[in-house]
Structure formats: structure tokens, C-alpha cells
Amino acid sequence: MINVMIVDDQALVRNGLAMIVDSQDDLSVVAEADSGDSALILAKRLAVDVVLMDVCMPGTDGIETTSRLIESEPSPRVIIVTTFDIDKYVFGALRAGASGFIVKSARAEDVIAAIRTVHAAMRSSRLVQLGGFSLRWFRIFRDRLSRRRCSTR
């Protein structure tokens, strides 16, 4: 069973994602949070394998929450789920340690596949292709980020 936490400030989005996740025999929503701060508290108390994380939320945003979750032990895998597929969010997600990035316009099948793929790769440091967001683009962003870090040292 893959334990999933959904973090989004919009109840309709959380409920929709929960219905998609819970429709599968091997997936279970173990927590829902409407803020990054709530997610951090819940993650400490529950066994969470994969987090579906919104980027733009009041208070602690999804990027900062992802970074703090990744630093915790045991750290869940995080998939950034957002309406925005622009560079600054992808860079932020990569810097924070997200395992994937998927837009809210993705099909239900893509969300399910993303969760399973990220969970299967938990022991691997490789990036995975999620919901039409090509692995090639993720690698390009990762490489750009790496070059920027190296050039600032």
C-alpha cells in the first residue's frame, strides 16, 4: 500500500485528488492538509510515502514545505502539483528536492502513474517522467540548476 498525503489550500482540489487516489487498491490517502504548516505536523505523526504538494499556498508555500519534508527522516517523495508549469516553479521544486512535477490539468491516470512511479523510485536518486512533463525537460532544468550552483561557488 502506498500512503499518500495531499497538500492544497483548495478543498475542491484536495477532494478531487483524494477520490482519484482512493479509487486504486494499492493507494491510500492517509492525510490531507490545507497548508504547508499542517502538512509538516501531519508528516511527523504519519507514515507517508508520497506527498502531492501544491506550490502556491498561504503561509508556508509548497516549495518551502517540500524542502522541510525532504530534510525529515524518513522523508517522503514529493510530487509538485500546480496550475503553473513555468521555470521558476520547476527550479524551486528541484532545489527543494521534489521527485516530480505535474500540472493540475493532468489526467487522473497520469496522477496515479506519477504516484506509483515516484514510489517505485524511492530507493533511486533518478528523476522520473510524470504526466507528460518530459524527463528531458526535467534534466535540462536540473543541469541548469547544477551549473548555476557551481558558478556561484
Characterization of the model:
It contains six helices and five strands, in the order βαβαβαβαβαα. It is α/β, with parallel strands linked by helices and 153 residues long. A five-stranded parallel beta sheet has the order 2-1-3-4-5, with helices on both faces. It is globular, with a radius of gyration of 14 Å. The termini are far apart. The C terminus is likely disordered.
Give a summary of the structure in a few sentences:
The chain has 153 residues and is of the alpha/beta class. The protein has helices spanning 11-22, 36-45, 62-71, 87-96, 108-120, 135-151, and strands at residues 2-7, 27-33, 50-54, 77-82, 100-103.
Q: Mean pLDDT, nearest integer?
A: 83
**Oligomer, anyone?**
single chain
Low-confidence stretches: 132-136, 148-153
Number of contiguous helices: 6
Trace the largest sheet across and list its strands: 2-1-3-4-5
Give the distance, in angstroms, between the N- and C-terminal Cα atoms. 43 Å
Tally of strands: 5
Measured as a percent range, the helix fraction is 40-55%
Radius of gyration: 14 Å
**Major β-sheet annotation:** 5 strands, parallel
Shape: globular
| Residue fraction in strands | 15-25%
Helix-strand makeup class: alpha/beta
N-to-C SSE series? EHEHEHEHEHH
